[in-house]
Structures are given as C-alpha cells and as structure tokens.
Amino acid sequence: xxxxxxxxxxxxxxxxxxxxxxxxxxxxxxxxxxxxxxxxxxxxxxxxxxxxxxxxxxxxxxxxxxxxxxxxxxxxxxxxxxxxxxxxxxxxxxxxxxxxxxxxxxxxxxxxxxxxxxxxxxxxxxxxxxxxxxxxxxxxxxxxxxxxxxxxxxxxxxxxxxxxxxxxxxxxxxxxxxxxxxxxxxx
Length: 187
What we know:
The protein is of the alpha+beta class. The chain is built from 7 helices and 4 strands, in the order ααβαβααααββ. The chain has a 4-stranded mixed beta sheet. β1, α3 (53-62) and β2 (64-75) form a beta-alpha-beta unit. α5 (96-118) packs across α6 (131-140). The mean pLDDT is 91.
C-alpha cells in the first residue's frame, strides 16, 4: 500500500513503467531467489520484526549484487531490550482497552526518557510519524529482535560485505543504521 501510494504521489516525476511493486516475505527463500540481485537493498527498521531476524538479514544479503549496497537499521541491544520484548508481547495479546491504557501509560514515560537521553523535544521530529503514533508503533512492534552493532557488522561481513558507515541510534534502544557494500560473494 505504501509503495503504491508513493508511486501515485510522485507519478509526475517518476516513470511508472519502470516500477515493479511486489508483496512477499523476506523469510521465504524461494521468493527472495526469484527477485534476483540489486544495486541497493534497503531494509530500514523491518528485519527485526520478522520473527527470524538473522534469516531475514541473510536473505537481504543474498539480494545484493557484487559492489552493491545494503542499508539496514536494526534495534540496538541494551539492558532494557528483554523488558521491551515482554512489554511488546503483552501489548500485542491485549484487548483494545488494555492497549489504550498501555499507550496512555507509556506516552509520558517515553517522552521523558527520549528528552533526557537526547536533550531534544521528541515532538520535534526529523522524520516519520507524529510522536503519539510512534508510541503506538513502538509498543506494537512485535516480533521484536535486537543486536549490538558489532553483532550486525560481524554477521554481515561474513556474507562478503564491508561496513561503510554506521549511525548509532539516538537512544540506547533505538535503531542503529548501517551502510554495507558487497565486496565478494558470501562465505
């Protein structure tokens, strides 16, 4: 839906005949193989919500051609990551009224925590949705997996990539962003 709406929104600037929009599963090996390889594979903040993050990363790596680029953002592993995993699970199995109560409970806590960690007003955003929708998105983001920067780099470099750039998340549990280039076929 998002890709189609972007195509419509920017249709005057884009050659729609060059667009192919498919729906598939990054965990489906056959689907990924049928796609082929690309200059750029961009997976910002989604692979850790698949239920099998490492397989999703592996399949994404296979979709990058030699000298191509892989852009990923993965939740950083912190002391509170296991707690957030439980909170997200509870949110997702709860009825609507409990979800609303959790959102109202966590909104001020997340606001204060983000402000204390970043020193910036969380309502003044650089990208994405408004803060309240982000809270709902954050609480609802399950499955939820995470890894340290070193774990991500080590894993992807074993697949024949080199890391070009890392942008650390602004909070301890935020996504770390990575830019990799494929230098050889994975081992």
